[in-house]
Amino acid sequence: MARNFCLLIILPLFSFCDEFIFWAWYSAQNQILKSKNINISQAMVLSHSLGDQICSIPHKKNENQTTLEFLKEHSNLLEDCFISSKVKVLDASKFSTNKSNLQTQITYIPIRFAVNFEGNNTIITQIKGQK
User: Fold this and answer.
1) Spatial separation of the C-alpha atoms in residues 50 and 123, rounded to whole Å
2) How many other β-carbons are positioned within 10 Å of the β-carbon of residue 1?
3) Cβ–Cβ contacts within 10 Å for residue 124, how many?
4) 14, 18, 57, 130: which is deepest, by most CB within 10 A?
5) If you compute the radius of gyration of the chain from its CA atoms, what whole number of angstroms results?
6) Dist CA 11 CA 44 (whole Å)
7) Which residue, among 110, 108, 109, 106, has the nearest Cα to 26 in the 3D structure?
8) What gap in Å lies between CA 104 and CA 33, rounded to an integer?
9) Which regions of 43-86 does DSSP assign to beta strands (E)?
């Protein structure tokens, strides 16, 4: 049992997986961005149903750089790729006679995507969900 668990942890480190999961969380108070958290992680389970190409990032990966490091370095460009994805919005408003307090939280629903490097471009393709 312990051996299987260790294999599940170590196997993705040595595999050449090019599928990842993206999600982001933003928090704003009184229409001012207070915190931002962008997460990119490698997918543990590979899927075989690729969807449509979402976007292309006009940069190529360095030879001594992993794909995950490349994606984290260009997370702002990757964030623009998923701008039309599903989000969850939580909005709370408190008003009194002298002040107001508006709090908004936006969460990108986790998105699975694949990365292909072609020449000087990086192609981002969304993975279709299982139905």
Assistant:
1) 12
2) 5
3) 22
4) 57
5) 18
6) 9
7) 106
8) 9
9) 50-57
In tens, the pLDDT along 24-68 reads 999 999 888 999 999 999 888 777 677 788 888 888 888 888 888
> For residue 34, what are its two tokens?
């207070």
Q: Which tens digit of pLDDT belongs to each residue from 92-101?
A: 988 888 888 8
CA torsion through residues 54, 59, 60, 65, sign: negative
3-class DSSP state for residue 130?
coil
Are 113 and 124 within 8 A, CB to CB? yes
Query: Is residue 111 a contact partner of residue 23, using CB atoms and an 8 Å limit?
Result: yes
Position 64: which residue type? Answer: N
Q: Residue 41 burial (CB < 10 Å; 0-12/13-18/19+)?
A: middle
* Cα gap 106→71, rounded to integer Å: 21
Partners of 102 in the beta sheet?
Answer: 93
Q: Closest by alpha carbon to 43, among 130, 127, 131?
A: 127
Q: What pTM does this model have?
A: 0.73
Residue 78 CA from chain centroid, whole number: 8
